[in-house]
Every structure is written in C-alpha cells, then in structure tokens.
Amino acid sequence: MADREPRPGPGKHSDHEPTPPAPSTSRARVSRRAFLVGGAAAGAVAVAGAGGAWAGRATAPATGAASSGTVTPAALHGDLRVPFHGPRQAGVETPPQAYLTLVALNLAPGTDRDALVRLMRIWTDDVVRLTQGRPGLTDTEPELAEVPARLTVTVGYGPAVFTAAGLDDRRPDWLRPLPAFAVDRLEDRWNGGDLVLQVCADDEVTVSHAVRMLLREARDLASVRWLQKGFRRSVGSEPAGRTMRNLMGQIDGTRNVDLVTDAPLVWSDGTDGWLAGGTSMVVRRIRMELDTWDEVDRSTREAVMGRRLADGAPLTGAREHDEPDLEAVGPHGLTVIGPAAHVRRARTSDPAERFLRRAYSYDDAPDVATDPGALSSSGLVFVTFQADVDRQFVPVQRRLDEVDLLNEWTTPVGSAVFAVPPGCAEGEFLGQPLLG
Amino acid sequence: MSARTTTPTSRASVRPRRTALLGAAVTTLALLAVAGCSASADTSSGAATPSTASGSASEGTAADHLTATDPWIKAAESGMTAAFAVLHNDGDQDVTVVGATSDLSPVQIHEMATDDSGAMVMREKEGGLTIPAGGEHALEPGGDHLMLMELSSPVEPGAEYEVTLELSDGSTLVVTAPARTFAGAKEDYDEGHEGHDMSHDG
C-alpha cells in the first residue's frame, strides 16, 4: 500500500488492448452483427480508455454515436478480449479487471526441464484459447469459456523452476524470498510457490473456469500451494478508470509508475538474457485490522494516510493527483502531513524506488473458530511488478517497515516473489527463452 | 492435426521420435496444400476437373480432403487410453476411416452404444468412421473415439504423439496429438466394466 500508483501514458496500452470479437460470417445476421460490432468497438474504446484512466484520465461509459448518428447500446463487456500473443505477457499493463484469482503451485516431485516445457505448452495452449473466448482443448464445460471478459493469465516462476530445470545460473538474483520485515506476521500457507498463475477477468465465472481448466490439465505436473482471490469494483458500477478504494475506505493507487515513460521500471531490459520483456511479481497478502480501524475517527484516518478520504487528495492539496507538499506547516507549527504518515514514508527521492501496483481487495470468512467475535478477514492482495525487486521494492518496504502509521492496522501475512517470463509469439510457448 | 501451427519450435526434446514427427508434419502440410487446391478447383469450375488420381475419390486421395482439428490424447502411464479430434471432410465424396495405427499401441475405432439391457457400452465400430462429404465427425469422450489398446510406453501430458488414420482408399492421414491429463473417458479404462465387450488382443 505504498503511495505509488500506476501512471500509464495517455491511453497507451501497447499490445494488450482488448478487442471486440470477430464479425460473424453468418449472412443472415450481417446487419445485426455490424451493429453489434459497432457497439463492441465502442466498448473496446471505453475499456482502452480505462487504461488511460488508470493513468488518471476518466472516460465516458460505453455508449457512443454510431456512424449513422444514432446512439448504440453498450456492448457486452464479456465479449471483450485481451490479445495474448506479444513480447510481454498480458495482465501487467492491462487495466485491472474486476476479479483476480492468484494461484501458487508446487512442482510435482521429479519435475525436470522436459516436464516444465510440457507444462508450459499445456498452459500456453489453454491461455491462447480461453483468453480469446474459446474452450480449452479438453474443456468439459465449453460454454463457460464463451465469455472472455478481458481474461488474462500471467505465468510466473519461483526459484524452484530454475533448480528443477538445472538452470540455477539463469535465476535472477532478486528471485528469492523478501528479507524479513519487523511488521511481518507471515503464515506459511500464504508464502512462496514454485509457479504462479495470475488469472484476471471482469467476470468471476470466467476466472473460475479458467483456473479450473489450467489446474486440472496440470494436475500430474503441479499441485496447488495456495490460492488467493481478490476483487475490485464491478465493470459499470462506476466510471471506468477511477483509482480503486480499498476496504479501509482509502483511495489506494493514486500515484503509480507511468507505463510509457517508466517502462524500464517495470520491464527487464534483457540484462538477464532470457528475461527481456519479462518482469518480477511480488505478492504480499496484507491483512487489514478492520475491527480496530472501526475505532478510528475520520480525521485521524486522514492523518494516518496524509490524504483526504473523500477524494484522495493530499492533506496539502485540492485534488487526488496533486503532489503532496511534505514541507507545508500547519497552524501549530507541525507539518500538515505528519512525519509518520503513509504518504510521506512511502516516498523516496530516488526515482528508481517505484513499481507498478496492481492490487485487489479480499474479504474472506472471519476465522471465528480461533477468533470468536471476529467480523471479517479482509485485506489486500498486493501485487506489484518491477524490473528489479531488490532495487525497487525492497527499499520502499524497508522504509514502511521502520515507520508508518498505517502499520497499526495492516499486517503482511503472506509473501512471495516470482519471475514473470516475457510473452510469446504464435507457435511459441511461455518461458521458451528460458526453457526451450 | 496435423497442421497445428501452434507447435512450438522448442529445442528441448519433449516430443518423442522427433524426426518422425517432423516428417509427419511435412507430409501433412503437403496433403493440406493439395486439398486446398482441389477445393479451389471444384469451386471455381463447378464442373469435373481432370483427376490425376486413379483411386475411387473424385480427385486425389481421400486423405487429401480430410483434416483434423483439436486432436488430443489422454495421458496415461500404461494400459489403455483414447485419442480424440474433430475430422473434417472438404471433399464431395464421403471419407471412411477404416483403421488407425500408432507406434504407441494397437489402435481400434470405438463407439459408445446402448446394449440390450439399455446400458451404455463401448464397442469396436463396425465399418469404421464415415465423415460425410462437406461435413465433419467428432471423436470425443463419451462418443466415437480412437482406442489405444495397450500402451508400450507412457503418454505424458504436454508431449505430442502421432496416430495415423487409414482410409478406405488406402491413403493415410498422420495426426499429431498433444497429450492432456483428463479425468473423464473412464469407460476407456475399466476392462471389467459391465457391458464392456471389447476384446483385448493388443
């Protein structure tokens, strides 16, 4: 929950802008189809705009004037699909979809490089099909695949992949557990993983089916280690492109890296060879102590963050994206943004100490068996992408670990680091530059 | 099948008998090219075009008109397994698959049918599979399928394997099928299952 948020360039979303479905070839439906495609195109523009809006630019909802001058209805957002093939995997720059399932897996005993290649071929084939609205090869519920809803699947590798493949010499230096932080209360059930699948879509049924398809075709090669689900606002419930609000009520993600000008902060430049076009994924499961947060009044909540709750503006500013003035002094001679406020502690003067945040909320059943009277088990599945974990993520986390008022109500309970291989072209499989 | 262009060009040796597979792929591409030409000629002329084939098909061999999409084979350590695909016939004559072969195992063409007691049973399909002119025929779990009767080596998930379809005019089509872990198609394995009337001579 560092005060770092994505700042993609204006509407620029490279390879992974969603596209409407291809027109039907059915002659009987040509005119209606054209109408629908027109609507879908409008929808695509709106969602692509959401990418730009992730950069802080709001866009109109998915209605627009057709060429005839009439207003078309919004296309089904379930029809939108994000291209899979490309130099980078989707699901990183992709404007966050409404739902996340993050699955870490353990490799089966005896897995070798050959088995990893086979697994990557299976998953690549599944992802190619499912993200484009087609059933998996062995899909026993093909109808569930018909709504891609901007489905993306992002594959990452834990350290064990390199060991299993006999490629430890190609493992990035930063691919290891994060250093221990004083605030951590890590539980092994949320830690680590040999592989990770980040599955996101704007429809939770779509996510569920994709996860099931990917796991069952891999069951001889890898098994589930942990699974975390997350959510954001549903599509259409508020204007696209708004910064998310976490379950503490805070606008969370106002300031983030610019996906165009800060691309080197997100994507590996190839110094690591096979990783060119890849990145790293840090997963922190951050529990929110909502039951004690309830005791905190609004002005104190704002002081903790250094931002106003209503609009996310810094306490020294007027609008969400205003730069906080860390030097501004109030009537009592104290800085307006306190010395331990989250906004202050998350900032550094080193421009390299930033990363792409792509967080989701979670809200699980309270564990009343061990904590009678608990109302909730909530928090953040805090997912970040950065070219170099040690250079970018760790220093910020150290600062927050030292001092951050927010630590009173947030507790990291899970932690994992993965290397995200680059994307692939048609006919290739994910991870081919490493494993092929 | 065949002409699945998604086959990665990996240097890792995950495909058994790589040389043979490459040969198969080339063959298949050639077959598809021929099929494409034939179809084009049919469409443009609307009349019979000179056939260079001496077989029973109107033009070329039956295999020239047959393609398979989404082939796959159920992963298995040993014993029996099954292979599936959708077969497409773009010719103007029916195509009949009369048999199949694989280095993995003896292969039979099977169907699911209702026996005298009303139970679903699997049995060898008499007369083979007929794919109607201009039509398609699905080989799928719970329906017609290719039965690999006794594996000589494991079928590993994610690896690719060849199955050769033998057609009634003597031509053949090589299908390259990736293996997948699959929980269904149980009927293929339960030799003691009631009504299971296959003979296991593999």
From TrEMBL, chain A:
The lineage of its organism: Bacteria, Bacillati, Actinomycetota, Actinomycetes, Micrococcales. It comes from Oerskovia merdavium. Residues 1-18 have a biased composition (Basic and acidic residues). Belongs to the DyP-type peroxidase family. It comes from the Bacteria. Residues 89-232 form the Dyp-type peroxidase N-terminal domain. This is Dyp-type peroxidase. GO terms for molecular function: peroxidase activity. The chain crosses the membrane at residues 34-55. Its cofactor is heme b. Residues 244-424 form the Dyp-type peroxidase C-terminal domain. Residues 1-29 are annotated as: Disordered. InterPro entries: Dimeric_a/b-barrel, Dyp_perox_C, Dyp_perox_N, Dyp_peroxidase, TAT_signal. Keywords: Heme, Iron, Membrane, Metal-binding, Oxidoreductase, Peroxidase, Signal, Transmembrane, Transmembrane helix. NCBIfam families: Dyp_perox_fam. The keyword Metal-binding applies. The keyword Lipid biosynthesis does not apply.
TrEMBL record, chain B:
Residues 42-62 are annotated as: Disordered. Keywords: Signal. Gene3D superfamilies: PCu(A)C copper chaperone. Pfam families: PCuAC. It comes from the Bacteria. Residues 1-35 form the signal peptide. PANTHER family: BLR7088 PROTEIN, COPPER CHAPERONE PCU(A)C. This is Copper chaperone PCu(A)C.
